[in-house]
Amino acid sequence: MDNFNRIPANSFVVAMRKVYNPIGFSKGYNFVLWFVTIGYIMGFTLARLQYLSFYGIFCNPRIHGASGASPGECYFYLQNPFKIGMMLHLFCILPAGFLVCFQFVPAIRHKVILFHRINGYLVILLSLIANAGVLVVAQHAFGGDMATRILTGVLVVSTTLAYIFAWMNIKRLQIDQHRAWMIRAWGYFSSIITLRIIMFLAALIISSIGGFYTSRPCAQIASIVGQDMTINLYPGCLPFFQGKNNALEVVVKAGFPNGNPVEIGAGLGITFGSAGWLAFWIHAVAIEFYLRLTPAEGQRLRQVSYERQLERGFRQPGSAGLVAQRLGDADPYVPLSLGTDAFRRGEGYMLSVPGKKTGVEDTL
Asked: Closest Cα partner for 252 from 220, 223, 204?
């Protein structure tokens, strides 16, 4: 039976199908999963679009709190080449984060293929430029300690490799693997959202525990609270203002309790790297769980790949891309007994398991 024509269980299901069927979903739980994950990215992106006003909001010294950059960050972001790097990052990753949400709408992928392709190339181009920009600012981002620098490099390499593998697979018409690697790419990208949640919670924890310290340049501290307050709070900076040591740094307590913006910035800075690694691990594991818990869509797209590769005359239809059959010791791919259209309606059977029906869903 066609999934779109199933008898509804109740009036709520009827109402929900009027919402998710037009955008290409046949199962309610797939729509919920899509709404949560894409809403996570879209919500963060929309909230950060104000950062496109670089001087008016992001690096406006009169704006405090969560509306702008972390305290002291713009001391470096207003200097070249870090200003160029941060502008590249913000002006590219925010539009990319907005546009990529449309890449995961089934109705667009199936019915507006030209838009899907053009938008996909645009998203990749913008996010790769954003990656280049973040490499420029990594040495000063949230203190620029080694954990933060290595995290930045790993995220850039991981997302770039995921894009390369996705591109290689789509060029070989291996659509199932293209889907998997694009999901991985944006799963890695979106870890920066979870990072901020963990970072804030970690900063609260270290504030309650106490005893956490780091160092900050006197010039950066002065850019936050001014010369007089800097000397009052951090007398060790006096030689800096006397011109004896322009690179002088002093020890700063990290945490929120006193409302000191220097300490708040330090608290966020020393938790950024560890929060980033934890967020990256959570997302990497979650992606692999998701891909393994949605095998029906992977099998459907593997069959589509097989048929298109067969039409194009590939030597190993169904396995022309970066798949385990070519790179490892997996058993040869066995195509479905029925065509793609039948399989999309949930009527496909695996030849290797006679008589076993395989359900189909439109997932991310």
From this structure: 220
Q: What's at 56, amino acid-wise?
A: G
Query: Which of 347, 317, 342 is closest to 332 using CA atoms?
Result: 317
DSSP designation for 357: B
DSSP state of 9: S
226 Cβ contact partners less than 8 Å away, ≥ 6 residues apart = none
Neighbours of 107 (CB within 10 A): 13
Going by C-beta distance under 8 Å and a sequence separation of 6 or more, which residues neighbour residue 134?
85, 89, 141, 152, 155, 156
54-104 residue pLDDT tens: 999 999 887 766 678 899 999 999 999 999 999 999 999 999 999 999 999
R_g over Cα of the chain: 25
Q: DSSP string spanning 284-295?
A: HHHHHHHHHH-H
pLDDT tens digits for range 146-161: 999 999 999 999 999 9
Are 78 and 60 in contact, with CB atoms under 8 Å apart?
no
CA proximity to 294, closest of 193, 355, 362: 362
If you average pLDDT over residues 352-362, what whole number do you get? Answer: 39
List, in sequence order, every residue forming a beta bridge with 249; answer none if it has no partner.
217
Mean local confidence (pLDDT), 288-312: 89
Which run of H or of E encompasses 249?
Answer: strand 249-253
User: Which distant-in-sequence residues (6+ apart) come within 8 Å of 45 by Cβ?
Assistant: 94, 97, 98, 101
Tell which residue, 235, 272, 239, has the closest CA to residue 251: 235
Cα 241 to Cα 212: distance, rounded to the nearest angstrom: 26
Report percent pLDDT > 70 for the chain.
Answer: 89
The rounded distance, in Å, linking the Cα atoms of 269 and 75 is 14
**Residues whose CB is less than 8 angstroms from the CB of residue 125 and which lie 6 or more positions away in sequence, other chains included:** none
Helix (H, G, I), strand (E, B) or coil at 60: coil
* pTM, to two decimals: 0.85
Separation in Å, CA 139 to CA 146, 151, 162, 220: 8, 11, 24, 14
pLDDT for 64 equals: 64
| pLDDT interval class at 7 (50, 70, 90) | low
Taking alpha carbons only, the member of 29, 32, 38, 361 closest to residue 186 is: 38
